[in-house]
Amino acid sequence: MTAQDVYKFLYQSAFGCAHLAPAKQEAQAELQAEYARLKPAETAVEPLDGPFARVPLGLLREGLDAGTLAGLFCASAEAAPTDKAAFRALLAAALRQAKQGALPFPAGALSEAFQSLAAQGFPAVRHSAAYRAAYRPAYRVIAQRFLPFLPLLARIDTLLKDGPVLVAVDGGSASGKTELGAMLCALYGCTVLHMDDFFLRPQQRTPERYAEPGGNVDRERFLEEVLRPLKARKPIAYRRFSCQTMTLQPAQTLLPDRLTVVEGTYALHPDLAGYYDLSVFLEIDPQLQRERLSRRETPESLHRFMSVWIPLEQAYFDALCVPQRCDLRIRAADER
User: Fold this and answer.
1) Which residues, in sequence order, are CB contacts of 40 under 8 Å at separation 6+?
2) pLDDT higher than 60, residue 336
3) Phi/psi at 250 (nearest 5 deg)?
4) Among 247, 244, 245, 282, which residue's Cα sits nearest to residue 261?
5) Contacts 24+ apart (CB under 8 A), 27-33
6) Which contiguous run of DSSP H or E holds residue 54?
7) Helical H runs in the chain?
8) What are the tens digits of pLDDT across the range 10-19?
9) Residue 167 and residue 259 in contact, taking contact as beta carbons nearer than 8 Å
């Protein structure tokens, strides 16, 4: 490494790949060309000191598609921060480390290099020729918030090679199911369906029904209106349940998609589980769950979640061994 490479690492820590902000199609073409040219073997993800990480192109050998990684790269670039004060603090920290002998670089050389780049307005730079010759780096910088989902994306990309894929995302309240569905929709342009649209109608809300593990959604209607037509590759016409009016809305018609994601608690009830090609359970620590719900719910609604809905969810998870039956389990992290 040289002073230029130190600067580049810190630049990526602060800004990610904001200086590139490429179009996805262009980013994918460049990524595929680089992968074919270098044939990288490295697969270890390298978190940076900040909200970003370096993801090696070697992961493309493990199922991740170039288009998916390019999509993550572009999404990370669009949301990257631009705070130069924070970057200056990182440079100052590196200089202090060099002066203390903790870095294998003379402090004077680092200071001179940093001052020169500061005079140019802190531009993005390439790795030094020496670094490229020694390590042949082949990676993309993406937001760390995407890292827990890389195994899921690789599984989806692998399955899509053989045909349409139906994915279920289950988990407790506030575990990130809706956010994951939105992320998959942004990456793949897929159809996302919500179990919240299949709450029980008033006449179904009996003590006997609520006593069933997983009984507080209309899984029978979901099976008939959604899962069976989807598996048969037929159009689906489903009716959303409105909590405001407590009635079913007019039917919405959807054509079968290349990728369909069903997100929501109770998606993996045993009556439904056999229809999916891939299942994911999002785990969440109870304290983090409460904190997330407190940020988004009113006090009255929070009390209802804690006293009614979450106990019903937990009874469903425990009685039907839902997490243990899933193909993947991903733990939610606090991103504040």
Assistant:
1) 56, 57, 58, 136, 138
2) no
3) -55, 150
4) 282
5) 27/70, 27/73, 27/74, 28/66, 28/67, 28/70, 31/57, 31/66, 31/69, 31/70, 31/73, 31/140, 32/66
6) strand 52-56
7) 3-15, 24-38, 66-78, 84-99, 107-119, 129-135, 150-160, 177-188, 207-211, 219-222, 228-231, 270-273, 286-296, 299-304, 310-320, 322-325
8) 999 988 887 6
9) yes
The answer to whether the beta carbons of residues 150 and 59 sit under 8 Å apart is: yes
Q: Which amino acid is at 216?
A: N
Count the neighbouring beta carbons within 10 Å of the beta carbon of residue 196: 16
pLDDT of res. 22: 67
Quickly state the pLDDT bin for 82 (edges 50, 70, 90).
confident
- Residue 278 pairs with which residues in a beta bridge? 167
Q: What is the largest CA-CA distance in the chain?
A: 77
- Concatenated DSSP letters of 191-259: EEEEGGGGBPPGGG--HHHHHSTTTTB-HHHHIIIIIHHHHTT--EEE-PEETTTTEEPPPEEE---SE
Q: What b/e readout covers 73-84, taking b as 16+ CB neighbours within 10 angstroms?
A: bbbbbeebeeee
Cα–Cα distance between 9 and 139 in angstroms, integer?
A: 13
- pTM score of the predicted model: 0.91
Instruction: Give pLDDT tens digits for 46-56.
Output: 999 889 999 99
- Rounded distance between C-alpha atoms, residue 42 and residue 144, angstroms: 18
Contacts of residue 23, defined as CB under 8 A and 6 or more positions apart, other chains included, come to 74
The Cα 209–Cα 217 span in angstroms is 9
Strand partners for 170: 281
At 106 the three-state DSSP class reads coil
Residue keyed to tokens 């009830």:
269
